[in-house]
Design a protein that fits this description.
Elements (H helix, E strand, L loop, with lengths): L21 E3 L1 H6 L3 E5 L4 H12 L5 E4 L4 H8 L10 E4 L2 E4 L3 H7 L2 E11 L4 H12 L5 E4 L6 H8 L8 E4 L2 E4 L3 H7 L10 E7 L3 H12 L4 E5 L5 H4 L3 E2 L8 E2 H14 L3 E4 L3 E6 L4 E5 L2 E10 L3 E3 L7 H4 L4 E2 L2 H4 L7 E5 L3 H11 L4 E5 L9 H8 L4 E4 L2 E8 L5 E8 L5 E5 L2 E4 L3 E3 L31 E3 L11 H21 L1
Parallel strand pairs: 2-3, 6-7, 10-11, 10-17, 11-14, 17-28, 19-26, 20-21, 20-26, 21-22
Antiparallel strand pairs: 1-6, 2-4, 4-5, 6-8, 8-9, 12-13, 15-16, 16-17, 18-27, 23-24, 24-25
Helix pairs in contact: 8-10, 8-15, 13-14
The structure holds flavin-adenine dinucleotide.
Flavin-adenine dinucleotide (FAD) binds next to helix 8, strand 11, helix 9, helix 13 and helix 15.
Length: 503
C-alpha cells in the first residue's frame, strides 16, 4: 500500500519577499566545513543570522549561550570578553556578529539571485522549469503546493486569483509559468553554444516524435527532439491509457517516460523547453530558430501534436487557470473533495470526467448534444459511477464569477426550451476537441489544410517541402491515438532515412 504524503507544516512567510534562496558556488558547498552559531534568544541579530542560514539551507549547529553551563564552557574559548552574540564559528574562524552581507560572502552565496519555485510534481511546466534550473546549476527552493501549507494561497495571491504553477520568484519578482528564455534572461545565463548539424530535428516530444527518434537513432542517424513543454506530449497528460497494444492499462506518464528513456538510451538528444518559432532552408541544412537558440539539422520531422479547443464564451478567458481548466491530470488535484463541471461529450471528456470522479465530490458532465459521441466503453463505465451526473442537450452560455472574482459556475441554456440556468461548481474542465499546434508553420512554406493540419498525401509523411516530414496528431487525417502516433513516427523515420541516404 502506498502511503499518502504527509502535509508539511512549515511557517510560510506570506510576504514571499522574505523567502530567499540563492545560487551558490557548488565547490564551496562541497568543501564547506562545520558551522556553529552561538547566540541568545533575546538577541535580534542572532535571529537574523539563524533565519539567513535556514533560508539558504546551510546546515549549522546552534548553541544558546544562556542555556547551560556546558554550553557556556564550550563557547568560552571562542567568545570575546564581554561575549558577543551572535558569533559564528566556521572551522576555527571566529566571526563576531556577522551581518547578512558578511554571511553571504563567507558562504559563497550570490544574493543577486534568489529563486523560489511554487509547483507540484504532477505539473509538466514545473518539471520543465525545475529541469532547466538544475541543468543550469541554479539552487532553488521548491515549494510544493500540495504539501506546503499556504503555498496555494501565495500562488493565488501573486497571480491575482489564478492558480498558475510554476510561479517562480526571482529576486523578489514573481514570474507566472516563465518559459526557459525568460528564466535564462532573468537569471542572466549565457546563451548556450550552437549545436552541431543533426541528421534529423524532431519538433515535438510526444509519441510520434519519440518514436521517430528511436528509429532514427537505431538507423545511426543523429537526432534532436525539440520540445517546448514536457517530453511525452498529450499522452503524458493522460491518467490511464487502456488501448496501447501490449498494455491492458498503463499510466500516460509511465508509458511516455519509458519511450523517452528508450530514445535517450539510443542516443537521442532531448531538448526540453525549446519552442520552435520558425525555420529556414540553407543550402546544406535547415536552421531552426528555437526559444533556446539555433539548431541545425539535415531534415525535420514535424510532430507538434494538437491543443485543447476553447469554448469561446463569456468569462472563459478571464477564468482560465482560476476555475476553468483543460487538463484534469494537470489541475484536477486542486479540486479534491470539490464539485466540478466537465464540458464535452467525446472520449476525452468522459475519460477525464471518470478520472475526476475518483477524488472530486461531484462531477457534472455537460454536453451540447442529446447523446454522447464517446465510445460505448466510456458511456457504460459512466453509468456505474455514483458521483457523476450528466446534463445533455444544453448550450454553455458564459462562465460566471462571484463578487470576489472566484469561479461560481457555468450559465447554460437548455436547447429544448431556451431556459437559462446557472450550474454552480468549484471549477470546470473543458474537453471539446483539439486544434493542431501548427501556427508557427504559417511563416514557412509548409502547406496546411483548412483546419491547420499539415497536408500530406494520404498514408504518407512527406510534406510539400523536401526534407520536411509530418507525423502524429498534427498531420492531416491522423487518427489521434497514441498507437497511431507511434506508427506515424515509424513511417516518418523510414521517410527520413530514404531522404538522408539520397541527399
Ligand atoms: C485528454 C486526452 C486523453 C487521451 N487519451 C488517449 C487514450 O486513452 N489512448 C490513446 O491512444 N490516445 C489518447 N489521447 C490521444 C493521444 O494523446 C494523442 O493521439 C497522442 O499524444 C499524439 O501524439 P503526438 O506525438 O502526435 O502529439 P502530442 O502528444 O500532442 O505531442 C506533441 C508535442 O509537440 C510539442 N510542441 C508543439 N508545438 C511545438 C513547438 N513549436 N516547438 C516545440 N515543441 C512543440 C508539444 O508540447 C507536445 O509535447 C488522448 C488525448 C487527450 C488530450
Amino acid at each position: 500500500m502506498k502511503n499518502e504524503p504527509s502535509k508539511i507544516n512549515i511557517v510560510l512567510f506570506y510576504d514571499y519577499t522574505y523567502l530567499r534562496i540563492t545560487v551558490r558556488n557548488r565547490n564551496l558547498i562541497k568543501t564547506m566545513q562545520k558551522l556553529t552559531l552561538f547566540g541568545a534568544g533575546w538577541c535580534p541579530n542572532t535571529l537574523k543570522a539563524k533565519v539567513f542560514l535556514k533560508v539558504h539551507n546551510i546546515p549549522f549547529e546552534y548553541i544558546n549561550v544562556e542555556v547551560s553551563e556546558i554550553a557556556t564552557k564550550k563557547i568560552e574559548k571562542y567568545l570575546d570578553e564581554p561575549p558577543v552574540v551572535p558569533t559564528l564559528l566556521m572551522d576555527d574562524k571566529i566571526i563576531p556578529n556577522p551581518d547578512e552581507e558578511q554571511l553571504a560572502k563567507l558562504l559563497g552565496i550570490n544574493t543577486d539571485f534568489r529563486v523560489m519555485l511554487y509547483g507540484a510534481d504532477w505539473c509538466p511546466d514545473c518539471l520543465r522549469a525545475k529541469a532547466f534550473l538544475r541543468e543550469n546549476e541554479i539552487n532553488f527552493m521548491h515549494l510544493d503546493v500540495d504539501l506546503v501549507e499556504g503555498a496555494t494561497e501565495v500562488v493565488t495571491k501573486i497571480n491575482k486569483g489564478k492558480r498558475i504553477i510554476p510561479t517562480v520568484i526571482i529576486n523578489e519578482m514573481p514570474y507566472s509559468n516563465p518559459n526557459n528564455t525568460i528564466l535564462r534572461e532573468v537569471l542572466n545565463l549565457p546563451e548556450r553554444d550552437n549545436l552541431p548539424v543533426f541528421d534529423v530535428a524532431i519538433i515535438g516530444g510526444g509519441a510520434a516524435g519519440l518514436t521517430t527518434s528511436i528509429y532514427a537513432q537505431r538507423d545511426r542517424f543523429s537526432s534532436i527532439i525539440l520540445e517546448k513543454k514536457i517530453i511525452g506530449g498529450n499522452a503524458y497528460l493522460t491518467e490511464t491509457i487502456e488501448n496501447y497494444p501490449g498494455f491492458q492499462n498503463i499510466s500516460g506518464p509511465k508509458l511516455m517516460t519509458r519511450m523517452a528513456e528508450q530514445a535517450e538510451t539510443y542516443g537521442a538528444k532531448l531538448d526540453i523547453g525549446s519552442e520552435v518559432r520558425s525555420f529556414q532552408k540553407d543550402p546544406q541544412f535547415f536552421t531552426i530558430d528555437t526559444t533556446s537558440g539555433e539548431v541545425r539539422a539535415r531534415s525535420i520531422v514535424l510532430a507538434v501534436g494538437s491543443t485543447y479547443k476553447q469554448l469561446r464564451i463569456l468569462g472563459e478567458k478571464e477564468l482560465i487557470g482560476a476555475g476553468v481548466h483543460f487538463c484534469a491530470t494537470c489541475d484536477g488535484a486542486f479540486y479534491r473533495d470539490k464539485e466540478v463541471l466537465v464540458i464535452g461529450g467525446g472520449n476525452s471528456a468522459l475519460e477525464e470526467g471518470i478520472f475526476l470522479a475518483r477524488f472530486c465530490k461531484k462531477v457534472t458532465i455537460v454536453h451540447r448534444k442529446p447523446t454522447f459521441s464517446a465510445s460505448e466503453t466510456y458511456i457504460e463505465k459512466l453509468a456505474t459511477i455514483d458521483n457523476i451526473e450528466t446534463r445533455l442537450d444544453i448550450t454553455p452560455v458564459a462562465f460566471e464569477a462571484k463578487g470576489n472574482g472566484d469561479f461560481e459556475g457555468l450559465r447554460i441554456q437548455q436547447n429544448a426550451n431556451g431556459k437559462e440556468e446557472l450550474l454552480t461548481a468549484d471549477g470546470a474542465f473543458i474537453f471539446i476537441g483539439l486544434k493542431p499546434n501548427t501556427g508557427f508553420l504559417k511563416k514557412t512554406p509548409v502547406e496546411l489544410d483548412k483546419k491547420g493540419f499539415i497536408a500530406t498525401e494520404s498514408g504518407r509523411t512527406e510534406t510539400n517541402v523536401e526534407g520536411i516530414f509530418a507525423a502524429g496528431d498534427c498531420r492531416q487525417g491522423a487518427y489521434a491515438q497514441v498507437a497511431a502516433a507511434t506508427g506515424e513516427g515509424v513511417m516518418a523515420s523510414y521517410a527520413v532515412r530514404n531522404y538522408l541516404r539520397n541527399n
